[in-house]
Amino acid sequence: MAAATVRPLVTVQSLDGNMTTNQTTTLPLPDVTKAPVRPDVVNHVHAQISNNSRQPYAVSKLSGCTHRAGQVAFGNMCRGCRMFALTKIYRRWHRSVNLNLKRHAIVSAIAARLLFRLF
């Protein structure tokens, strides 16, 4: 059973930091703490967003094949030659993530942080 359903009220202290005074109030937990914990959504959103910080790299398509004139100089298996299907800079490096999916991941992460059984 989740901690949000066991303890629906939270005690809030005053801002001065003095614990001896009785200026405490009890407030209900926000609804974000009662959200379902979805680690698959959090992992998916994190993996997709972390792809957005990558820098494109590629191999020059003109590299290699400047020696061994007339011999098997263009084969993919030959030493010092071009590679087949070389990496391109127009590869799909970045990923877009739906805004509602990002919001669900944030809410799920906050709800998971407040569960006592995960500590």
UniProtKB/TrEMBL annotation:
Give this protein's Gene Ontology molecular function annotations: structural constituent of ribosome
* Superkingdom of this protein's organism: Eukaryota
Kindly state which keywords UniProt assigns to this record, in alphabetical order: Ribonucleoprotein, Ribosomal protein
- State whether keyword Ribosomal protein applies: yes
Q: What's a GO cellular component annotated to this UniProt protein?
A: ribosome
Hey, what's the signal peptide range on this chain?
none
Transmembrane ranges, per UniProt, are none
Q: Which SUPFAM superfamilies match?
A: Ribosomal protein L4 (SSF52166)
Any GO BP: translation
- Ribosomal protein recorded as keyword: yes
The entry's family comment says:
Belongs to the universal ribosomal protein uL4 family.
Q: Supply the name of the protein.
A: Uncharacterized protein
Lineage at the top is:
Eukaryota, Viridiplantae, Streptophyta, Embryophyta, Tracheophyta
